[in-house]
């Protein structure tokens, strides 16, 4: 059923586009941005409930934030697609040992935050709001969270942010969209309508949603992690970002997967922040 259902969506979009390409694009975007998992699970509740901080309002959403206080600089942690702030539990332990002030939040549609949909411009607005509220010096993002951080820095650079870490993050939105088209099997008529809808709604050509473009003029220090065998975000994504980001350092791994919760990764992140 999991294989059949996406194809049914694709056939529906193809049919709808014969009558209205814009409606087909709107429906395709709605399905694309719908969050299907990532809410707080029972085994995650106790850990997150102890750290609940403010609820911030932005773009019609209520964002749940978390804080693990420390006496050193503030580090903001930004999770990926269909995840939540619990995914940072291992890194948080290392940061607490180093006595950093740690902040995280659940994106719209994730964790305890409101909503059912998430897209990159919305995530960027949320990150900007959290940065303005907590004034972090360091940003760490996993997967889509890393891409969203770079998008935020590109659109609303913050002079107080000094270092950025991304972990297994995608780079080119057009590659994500190509995968979406392949998964659902919709035709190029729908694809072009989707691209036109994105330009009309967000003012960006699809190919400008690109981390490698976002970092072209970024002069802050960066640390990028990516596993060669990552099946969710292509390894070449971070290679491309590193090539354009003059202040970045690239750590390639093999066999650590997409999540990268391993102690050796967390130790390197803390070491980078302390340089």
TrEMBL record:
- Give the range the annotation lists for the signal sequence: none
User: In which domain of life is the source organism classified?
Assistant: Bacteria
Q: Which residues form the AB hydrolase-1 domain?
A: 74-178
Q: Which Pfam families match?
A: Abhydrolase_1 (PF00561)
Q: Which InterPro entries match?
A: AB_hydrolase_1 (IPR000073), AB_hydrolase_fold (IPR029058)
Q: What is this protein called?
A: Pimeloyl-ACP methyl ester carboxylesterase
